[in-house]
């Protein structure tokens, strides 16, 4: 199993998965291109006009995601099948090897922080494809743990730092989570029955703060999406911390955590970056134990 994530320029990323299958390319090709077989393992219903430039249509079960269109960009049976999928590009390659073949999928997309969701999803799909080819039952389980493994493997847990217009800094973490916003908010605030809902002027709940970043009172609270507060340096406000839970890849909420500070607080910035990285990791681990 070889899974990699690379930047391709223009803000896009390429996810590459490689698997050896115990079946010849011709047999795998049919499972890749025939709608009746795709229905068993691909994440959507697929309509195919199997020719170069042919149209494709994707309809998701229960309309859990908007329908999408695509176009076949490359076709070389039984070795290469490439097409667009909305704004993304999928390239399936089959290389003979012994009695079987090597399947390589390259998925090119713009949402880098969605890569762990895409990787865990395609991992499950290709596992289902292998089961279909082998005449086995296709199992559908919770991919949350696999998702978090990809987050770490692809370096998606790290924060970034940029300079602000006033010469200060902005620390930013973006992370796809495996549970919906309401579940994440509950994990951050504690059980609703025991803890009042956060509000402006109230103390910051434990889940939204870390010891490395002394917290002032809440300045904005919009459950279950936004919580912001000023952090303090030497007993005085030094910048802001903002938690936001937005729409993600469909696997859960997308967390965007930002902290601003002055240029003079570079040491605090370095400590905060390490602390938030650890704190968000603990949150992700906690969410794995919660079934949605």
From TrEMBL:
<dbReference type="InterPro" id="IPR023393">
    <property type="entry name" value="START-like_dom_sf"/>
</dbReference>
<dbReference type="Pfam" id="PF08327">
    <property type="entry name" value="AHSA1"/>
</dbReference>
<dbReference type="InterPro" id="IPR013538">
    <property type="entry name" value="ASHA1/2-like_C"/>
</dbReference>
<comment type="similarity">
    <text>Belongs to the AHA1 family.</text>
</comment>
<feature type="domain" description="Activator of Hsp90 ATPase homologue 1/2-like C-terminal">
    <location>
        <begin position="23"/>
        <end position="134"/>
    </location>
</feature>
<protein>
    <submittedName>
        <fullName>SRPBCC family protein</fullName>
    </submittedName>
</protein>
<feature type="domain" description="Activator of Hsp90 ATPase homologue 1/2-like C-terminal">
    <location>
        <begin position="215"/>
        <end position="285"/>
    </location>
</feature>
């Amino acid at each position: 199993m070889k899974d990699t994530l690379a930047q391709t320029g223009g803000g896009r990323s390429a996810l590459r998965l490689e698997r050896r299958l115990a079946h010849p390319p011709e047999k795998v090709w049919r499972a890749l291109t025939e709608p009746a077989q795709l229905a068993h393992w691909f994440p959507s219903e697929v309509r195919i006009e199997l020719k170069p430039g042919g149209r494709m249509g994707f309809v998701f079960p229960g309309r859990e995601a908007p329908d999408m269109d695509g176009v076949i960009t490359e076709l070389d049976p039984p070795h290469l099948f490439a097409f667009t999928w909305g704004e993304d590009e999928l390239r399936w390659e089959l290389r003979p090897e012994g009695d079987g073949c090597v399947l390589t999928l390259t998925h090119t997309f713009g949402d880098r922080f969605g890569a762990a969701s895409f990787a865990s999803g395609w991992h499950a799909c290709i596992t289902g494809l292998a089961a279909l080819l082998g005449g086995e039952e296709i199992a559908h389980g919770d991919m949350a743990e696999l998702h978090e493994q990809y987050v770490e493997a692809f370096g998606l847990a790290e924060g970034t730092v940029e300079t602000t217009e006033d010469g200060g800094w902005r620390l930013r973490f973006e992370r796809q989570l495996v549970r919906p916003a309401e579940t994440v908010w509950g994990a951050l605030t504690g059980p609703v029955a025991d803890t009042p809902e956060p509000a402006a002027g109230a103390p910051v709940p434990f889940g939204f703060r870390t010891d490395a970043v002394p917290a002032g009172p809440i300045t904005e609270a919009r459950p279950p999406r936004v919580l912001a507060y000023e952090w303090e340096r030497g007993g005085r406000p030094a910048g802001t911390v903002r938690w936001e839970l937005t729409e993600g890849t469909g696997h859960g909420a997308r967390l965007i955590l930002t902290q601003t500070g002055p240029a003079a607080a570079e040491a605090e910035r370095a400590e905060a970056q390490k602390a938030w990285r650890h704190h968000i990791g603990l949150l992700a681990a906690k969410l794995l134990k919660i079934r949605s």
